[in-house]
TrEMBL record:
Spans annotated as Disordered: 26-47
Domain ABC-type glycine betaine transport system substrate-binding: 47-188, 207-310
Recorded GO CC terms: ATP-binding cassette (ABC) transporter complex
Keywords: Cell membrane, Membrane, Signal, Transport
Compartments (UniProt record): Cell membrane
An annotated Gene Ontology molecular function: amine transmembrane transporter activity
Gene Ontology BP, a term: glycine betaine transport
CDD domains hit by this protein: PBP2_OpuAC_like
Pfam families: OpuAC
The keyword Transport belongs to this UniProt entry's keyword annotation: yes
UniProt keyword annotation of Disulfide bond present: no
Protein name according to UniProt: Glycine/betaine ABC transporter
First-listed, main subcellular location of the protein, grouped into a coarse class: membrane
Amino acid sequence: MAMITTKRLLLTTLTLAAVLTGCSNQGSSAGDSTDGSKNQASGGTKSVAEQVNRQIIGIDPGAGIMKSANKAIETYGLKDWKLVEGSGAAMTAALDKAIKDKKPIIVTGWTPHWMFAKYELKYLSDPKNAFGGDEQIHTIARLGLKTDHPSAYAALDRFEWTPDDMAVVMGAVQDGKKPEQAAKDWVDANADKVGKWIEGIDKADGKSLKLGYVAWDSEIASTNVIKYVLESKLGYKVTALQVEAGPMWAGVAGGDTDAMVAAWLPTTHADYLDKYKDKVEDLGPNLNGTKTGLVVPAYMDIDSIEDLAK
């Protein structure tokens, strides 16, 4: 498995390197500014589409945001555009390089995410609502969890925090802390909030639980926080399973995984909910105020997905 993952990461890195090289070559011709916005604003001949080589840098192919991005390409008539598959880490690496070089780039983005704190970014407006508007992150449990593990069920049902809470954990991880330590630090600093999640709940005395999550920075943060609470406050032994979205939902639906706190609804994971709605229990949102869409550096002279067709 490690060898497969390594090969996939290498392939993704090489693919993104080629993409960025293409963008760089287009943005640095004689007489062109390295700032894509200046090139267009000053009457240059290159459109945004030409500056980014008609490519959008995406993440994992199974992610719901990729389906929405493909829908946007179709909805807005972006012929000959390509959505580049990769990972969340590869996407942010490409974004970082483009911003350091002051190059144009378009990525699939979502909030909460640490990149909005680190860089000056903006969402392209989506007047045709291809991305479905604001969302929530829900907690999903397997059927029978309430009977088998009532304490875990109760804590998961009460688990709720804010984008600002999540941003603290994500930022700490981005600054170099291990996710487990960042989660512990946040829990220790928010005893009152955490206390409401576990008030009056019996301890579990070493019972085992499995939580599924996808490798988004937001879900790494939330899963590690609830994992630490279940372990340190209620005595569970928790295994966190990092998988892609499809296997995450299938695991909970099939009973191999007990729960997840990583379901983006009603749009991003809509297909999975439709497929498994009779085999899982939706405990409701644990976080409100999320958003997905196409994101660009603030210095780019473009404001709407509609403008990409020009």
